[in-house]
Amino acid sequence: MNELKKIHKKNYGVEPAVSVSVPGVVNILGEYCDFNCGSVVSMTISKDVQVSVSKRNDSSLFFYDCKKNAKKKSTLTNLKYKEGQLHSNYIRGVISELLLIGLKLPGMDFSLKINFIEVAGLGSATAVALASVIAIKELTNIDITEAQMIQVAHRALTRFMGMNKTLTDFYCAYYSKNTIQYFDLKTLEYEEFEFDIKGYEILIINSNVELSDDNKTISALKNAFDICENKLRQLKNGRSLGDYRLEDLDLLIGKVPEVLRRKTSYFFMEKLLINKLRNYFIEQDMVGVGKYIKRSHESIRDVLEASCPEVDWLVNRALESEDILGAKHIGSVQGGSVFILGREGCREDIEEKLEEYEKIFGFIAEVFKVETSTIKIEKK
């Protein structure tokens, strides 16, 4: 974080008192399922968001965004959403939520650096919110628990920003110890798996497909799940989709639109895949893990219909290589990125195909390697 510290001192004239690094997050399986008490398998990635902060002697708030090379101003008494200031809005949201629970805060200077390509599905917003609340906690020694910090970061994005976010990404980023994490939102079961990366590598391909309105499309998917969940509760005891099984959807034939019933079947299919995937992670069988990553993509593509031709092409071409064990869509509906598990050195095979991708679709795809990571905190 040395570069960000230097930038902070250059812009504000003082060294930051606290600097925090929070990793991005990828949902390997279970994307979209955690809204309705499903389960999800996630990992942090070694691309991070960094936030540095120092105190001021007044009630002003300044936000410097390295990516935009711009400094913006607010005050503790005028914390409003500002158009065109996405990243600083995340921090405004965190400060707003801290004030709402009755905490006293000083004026502060912030510097923000996002060290990866911002594509939906990598948790950049989650990382900014978490890094900000951690930095403020370390700077001011406010009386707040870890659970409250996660809740504040979550509400900064859902309440202040109006985004669709579940808590699993926040818990994954906050508690990761370089492991794969499993969450069951119905039973509140939590499990960690060691991931011996030796001999393998994880790649992310940014398709660079223009993103749809992700909040709108995710809301539509959640609405389909909610309609089926509510109808099932009228027909059979249960509180959430997590209380039912795939075959219970047969009860909804003729009672809800078929397209909603089909999309909701993804929820149960993904849950079955996750149960299998857990065993392969326990056994450290990466071939088995890859198999279920592939099946998850098929379900996203054919049942949920949340992928797109560009991402499907990248997945299919990647799987032509014997060194690619699994590939799937992650992130934005009708856009997003590709998650790849392969043998060490498989990146060369992928890069060879990206030129063809550009010729066919007109988008320049980017590939980068990631590993698991953890939060880092540095004080002056």
Plain-language structure description:
With 380 residues, the protein is an alpha+beta fold. The chain folds into 2 domains: 194 residues, Ribosomal Protein S5, domain 2 (2-Layer Sandwich), CATH 3.30.230; 171 residues, Alpha-Beta Plaits. The protein is built from 10 helices and 12 strands. The strands form 2 sheets. Strands 1, 2, 3, 4, 5, 6, 7 and 12 form an 8-stranded mixed sheet that branches. Strands 9-10-8-11 form a 4-stranded antiparallel sheet. α2 packs across α3, α4 crosses α5 and α6 crosses α7. The longest helix is centred in the last third of the chain and has 25 residues.
How many domains in all?
A: 2
CATH topology of the largest domain: Ribosomal Protein S5, domain 2
CATH class of the largest domain: Alpha Beta
Outline: globular
Series of secondary-structure elements, N-terminal to C-terminal? HEEEEHEHHHEEEHHHHEEHEE
Second-tier CATH architecture of the largest domain:
2-Layer Sandwich
Fraction of residues in helix: 40-55%
Our count of helices gives 10
Distance between the termini: 12 Å
Main sheet summary: 8 strands, mixed
Annotation, overall tally of beta strands: 12
Strand content: 15-25%
Radius of gyration: 21 Å
Give the mean pLDDT. 92
Contiguous runs where pLDDT drops below 50 for at least 5 residues: none
The structure class reads alpha+beta
